[in-house]
Amino acid sequence: MVLVVDGLCKAYGEVVVADDVSFSLAHGECLGVIGPNGAGKSTLFHLLAGAVTPERGSIRLNGNELVGLPAHRRARMGVARAFQIPQPFAHLTVYENVLAAASFGAGLRGRAAADAAVAALERTGLHDRRSMLAGALPLLDRKRLEVAKGIAAAPKLLLLDEVAGGLTEREVQAMVELVRELKQSYAVIWIEHIPHALKAVADRVMVLHFGRKLLEDTPQAVMDSAIVREIYMGIPADAAA
Ligand SMILES: Nc1ncnc2c1ncn2[C@@H]1O[C@H](COP(=O)(O)OP(=O)(O)OP(=O)(O)O)[C@@H](O)[C@H]1O
Ligand SMILES: [Mg+2]
Question: What is 3-78+155-240's CATH topology?
Fold first, then answer.
């Protein structure tokens, strides 16, 4: 297993954002994560990446405990994330943004960093736009740039937070193709609100609600489940059954 998460707990005051969350993930797998707004999905990524410290629980990456390590150490060990809100350096070019991720994320220097940046741009379909200022990119390409920054950092675990959010249907398809291709190389966790996108790529989907893992199953089983219908549409589980 690339990632083994066990008994993760975190609350902000009264708001429980991780309630004894456990799951694991292998190389070449994609775990989808769904749940209503505020369920704790992005917080899970903060916990994995080291921006937030859990109150309890363990996060092992290839057998190494991550809890207690700062974010930059985890990045070097192979945790990379694409943020929900793209945060490029708007006044740097697309290439420079990806080069920075290869340098600071993976700790690469010189030619190795440049090669990693070019490979990430090619793989995400951004190579033609490498000289554009990142701030001038349309949304799909800003999302692609988030992904390119993630893979430039030579990850083992790639965390994608709503990289298809806000895209047109055709653009969602493009992102689905990209993630499907990427998952062959990494362990991927994909938070997304678009059911058909997860169905096309995820091997399993985990449902979070008030920080609790309610369900983990195949995408189809999760989308068809009474629990998911209840939390998304307010249909009581027994009425839906
Ligand atoms: N730093 C913080 N301090 C206090 N509360 C926070 C903090 N970060 C997040 N929260 C709260 O924790 C809860 C979970 O937030 P989180 O961003 O993980 O939700 P999410 O599942 O990603 O939602 P969305 O689908 O809207 O992106 C929310 O109620 C949010 O307001
Ligand atoms: Mg979120």
Answer: Rossmann fold (3.40.50)
